[in-house]
């Protein structure tokens, strides 16, 4: 049985003081349940959040890591550095990183391997642009991102993977995918995992939807059969909004 996951992606928002305020507020309204909850914050807020959430089951995630174990990579952060402070999971290959920072499928693949090697659960982001959706290429594109991103992973790693389907046209635009549309792609992603790794891995892999998830649309999206959770941007910054999504 897959345990749903609601993960917040704070992107480049909140100072440490603001992150501590969020944690204090969120803890007052959060009740542990069989829904997993994670907050993926900027690097400099991770340690404070781990400390603030230490008496809860709320997970803390990063938004990126470098694919090398260590080395001369000025400005980068390694998986071991994240692991040392207790980081549980890490977003990998977010569309903003692919578009704005030149991340390729090959880099995404190396980052997945590094995350697994360090005991950090990766959240692999895939999703098409509006041009690709309108051009009828969405499914081919997502299949190729999945195949290239997962290259060389073992079946047990595939089963432990979290995939986030985030159509680029729905991120930060207020334009959410229709629940059926999102579920169709999440089902397709599960099929790709089954084709590559078999039924057991496909049954276990968690597949999230991301893109303008809000309190008002969370339950219809999250009640679809192949959507196992959400990766939430803007609405994860406000405790009262995020809790409503967690409690969908
Ligand atoms: O990119 C996203 C989460 O990773 C989605 O962002 P929004 O929820 O702000 O659209």
UniProtKB/TrEMBL annotation:
UniProt superkingdom: Bacteria
Pathway the protein takes part in: Carbohydrate degradation; glycolysis; D-glyceraldehyde 3-phosphate from glycerone phosphate: step 1/1; Carbohydrate biosynthesis; gluconeogenesis
Active site: residue positions: 94 (electrophile), 166 (proton acceptor)
Enzyme class: isomerase
Keyword Disulfide bond: no
Keywords, in A-Z order: Cytoplasm, Gluconeogenesis, Glycolysis, Isomerase
CDD domains: TIM (cd00311)
E.C. number: 5.3.1.1
PROSITE patterns assigned: TIM_1, TIM_2
Substrates-to-products reaction catalysed: D-glyceraldehyde 3-phosphate = dihydroxyacetone phosphate
InterPro entries linked to this entry: Aldolase_TIM, TIM_sf, TrioseP_Isoase_bac/euk, Triosephosphate_isomerase, Triosephosphate_isomerase_AS
Subcellular location, record wording: Cytoplasm
Residue positions binding substrate: 9-11, 172, 212, 233-234
Isomerase among keywords: yes
Swiss-Prot/TrEMBL GO biological process terms: gluconeogenesis; glyceraldehyde-3-phosphate biosynthetic process; glycerol catabolic process; glycolytic process
Protein function: Involved in the gluconeogenesis. Catalyzes stereospecifically the conversion of dihydroxyacetone phosphate (DHAP) to D-glyceraldehyde-3-phosphate (G3P).
PANTHER family in UniProt: TRIOSEPHOSPHATE ISOMERASE
Family under the similarity heading: Belongs to the triosephosphate isomerase family.
Protein name (Swiss-Prot/TrEMBL): Triosephosphate isomerase
Organism: Aminipila butyrica
């Amino acid at each position: 049985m897959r345990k749903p996951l609601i993960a917040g992606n704070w992107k480049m928002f909140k100072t440490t003081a603001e992150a501590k305020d969020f944690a204090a507020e969120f803890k007052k309204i959060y009740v542990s349940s069989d829904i997993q909850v994670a907050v993926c914050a900027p690097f400099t807020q991770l340690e404070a959040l781990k400390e603030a959430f230490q008496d809860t089951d709320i997970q803390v995630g990063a938004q990126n890591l470098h694919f090398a174990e260590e080395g001369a990579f000025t400005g980068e952060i390694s998986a071991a550095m994240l692991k040392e402070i207790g980081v549980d999971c890490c977003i990998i290959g977010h569309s903003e990183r692919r578009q704005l920072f030149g991340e390729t499928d090959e880099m995404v693949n190396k980052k997945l391997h590094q995350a697994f090697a360090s005991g950090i659960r990766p959240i692999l982001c895939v999703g098409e642009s509006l041009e690709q959706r309108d051009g009828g290429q969405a499914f081919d594109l997502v299949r190729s991102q999945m195949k290239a991103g997962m290259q060389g992973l073992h079946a047990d790693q595939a089963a432990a993977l979290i995939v986030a389907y985030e159509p680029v046209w729905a991120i930060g635009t207020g334009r959410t995918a229709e629940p059926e549309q999102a579920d169709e792609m999440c089902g397709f992603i599960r099929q790709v995992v089954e084709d590559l790794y078999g039924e057991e891995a496909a049954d276990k892999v968690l597949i999230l939807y991301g893109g303008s998830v809000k309190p008002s649309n969370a339950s219809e999206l999250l009640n679809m059969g192949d959507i196992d959770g959400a990766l939430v941007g803007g609405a994860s910054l406000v405790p009262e909004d995020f809790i409503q999504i967690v409690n969908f």
